[in-house]
Write a structure and sequence with these properties.
The chain is an alpha/beta fold. It has 12 helices and 11 strands.
């Protein structure tokens, strides 16, 4: 359920094409559908512009299938994150038209065209090839939410000339997602050079004292570069989602209300 669907339903009721009882039946799933083991938020697209997205890791396969079946019933696109190969095979048996990207572990069921919604380009930059799974999770999430995405790979600070060579492309972005493991220094360098909002994603890539991403997380959190914000370790999805929201800009209605002067 999104704003377009709701407006269409209300217009049909107003014109007499849809009976009130029929409309009530259509709205009965608002705000959620109770499956017993899960309550699916059909109201989310109306509130945020994005339908509920499914975190698949740890879910029983039969539960995951039931959740996707209910979300797909609405006609919305369905995105699942952290999908294992076995889960993807079970999903593919029911929805062979869906796309599964093994590197990012994202599964996407397209049921309507993805509407471009970005004002510019989201650039996803990663320090090393080992960071690619998280970087691709970020990039593809932003793409599924309507942003144009450019990828820049393997520009870690161990070869600073590679980072500097990418500066013109970084400066062309509306927002940069920086994915880095080890000590996580790349986000500070990019934040100090590109003049764009930087969403830093620490990864669990690194040797012992990396503490599975903790050292990169702390480096990014204590960055001396202004304009760097940080998501959780390996959270490419959260970075891509936030980058897409920033790239959309403020919705027209919200922008208008934000500029209205208060009444004395």
């Amino acid at each position: 359920m999104d704003e377009t669907w709701l407006r269409s339903l209300l217009a049909s009721v107003a014109s007499g094409d849809v009976a009130v009882d029929k409309a009530v039946s259509e709205l009965r799933q608002l705000p959620y559908a109770d499956l017993g083991f899960a309550r699916l938020d059909h109201h989310r697209a109306l509130r945020t512009g994005v339908p509920e997205i499914v975190f698949a890791e740890g879910k029983q396969t039969e539960h995951l299938l039931a959740i996707v079946r209910e979300l797909a019933r609405t006609g919305q696109n369905v995105l699942c994150t952290r999908v294992s190969t076995a889960q993807a095979e079970a999903l593919h048996a029911l929805w062979p038209q869906a796309d599964y990207h093994a590197l990012s572990r994202l599964w996407f069921l397209p049921q309507r065209p993805i509407a471009p919604s970005g004002l510019g380009t989201v650039v996803v930059a990663c320090a090393g090839t080992s960071d690619l799974p998280v970087a691709e999770e970020a990039a593809r999430t932003a793409e599924y939410l309507g942003s144009q995405v450019e990828r820049i790979v393997d520009i870690g600070v161990a070869g600073l000339h590679r980072t500097l060579a990418a500066v013109p492309r970084l400066r062309s972005a509306s927002v940069v997602v920086c994915v880095a493991g080890m000590e996580g220094a790349l986000s500070s360098v990019i934040g100090g050079l590109c003049g764009r909002p930087v969403i830093a994603v620490p990864t669990s890539v690194g040797y012992g004292a990396n503490f599975r991403g903790l050292s990169a997380l702390l480096t990014m959190l204590t960055s001396c570069a202004a304009g760097v914000t940080v998501v959780n370790i390996d959270n490419g999805f959260g970075a891509g989602y936030t980058a897409a929201l920033i790239n959309r800009g403020l919705p027209a209605a919200a922008a208008h209300s934000a500029t209205v002067e208060p009444t004395p």
